[in-house]
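Risk register update: the risk of archive-format incompatibility is retired. Evidence:
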Amino acid sequence: MCLTIQNQLTLLHDLLDEQMTLKSVSVNEYRQIKKLVQTMTTNKAIEEELQAILPEIYCYGIKGEQVSSLDDHIIDNEQNIRTWLQLIQQTKTNICDPSSQLKHLL
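Archived output:
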């Protein structure tokens, strides 16, 4: 199944948002985050600001697979996750609304 960039952003946002809300996660979710980020890094439609933080999100996924306390890993990264969620939402909005891309360029 091939996901559009909009689908990828929505899925990544949902995964991270659920972790913040539930303060719970499985190792498989970290793997899914890593896989999504790997795919997204090759997409030129993603804004530079989000592209710049994708390596951080990828690292978060790697560390999440290796930590002894998954819950503590989320808590330790709460502020980062909030920032990532804002950038993902902003990118989704800009992709859906071409006029916002023009405003961004001006």
